Amino acid sequence: MLPVMPLPPWRPLLKAAQQRDSRSQAARWLQLATVSEDGTPRVRTLVFRGWSADDQLLLFTDARTEKARDLTHQPSVEVCWLLAKAKQQFRFRGVISTTNPAMDAQLCQHHWTTMRDSGRALWAWPDPGAELDLDASFPSELSEHSAPPDHFLVLTLKVSAVENLDLSHHPHRRRLWLLVDQWRERRLNP
User: Fold this and answer.
1) What one-character DSSP code corresponds to residue 140?
2) Which helix (H) or strand (E) holds 70?
3) Can you tell me the distance from the alpha carbon of 100 to that of 47, in angstroms, rounded to the nearest whole number?
4) What would the pLDDT profile of 23-48 be if each residue is shown by its tens digit?
């Protein structure tokens, strides 16, 4: 039997910050930094969808986006999550893996049903980034009973490093945890 690993020490800190910001819809928004094929940085806002393991953050995206192409080119990313009311910033570094319905239909269907009808509707819109067609359909809802489209991607960020900047103190407090150090906390200058 494998030993049970304790929850990484940064998870309770993140949970406490999320609880302080729980009334804000923006508390679920985080910024994903990727590198495009031409080597330029790109940043986009995504919605936090949960955890698939203690150190694996879940996000969803559309395979038709440039973001998906960036992740194919370079799966190493950083996510920045600012919880404004709690005055906490968390930065997660790691590698993202992608799963589509052809790879794991059951997993994608499960995550597909966790979204609101309005959230699922985005995957029924025309190709993201394409020239706007004023006659195109942009549905506002899509039933949970619909199947996830082939371009629905579940992104799993396997976290290897976490930095926390606590802005509620003077001076600010900054901490770092690395998976290779078994999440041992290091205190850094802010």
Assistant:
1) S
2) helix 66-73
3) 18
4) 999 999 999 999 999 999 999 999 99
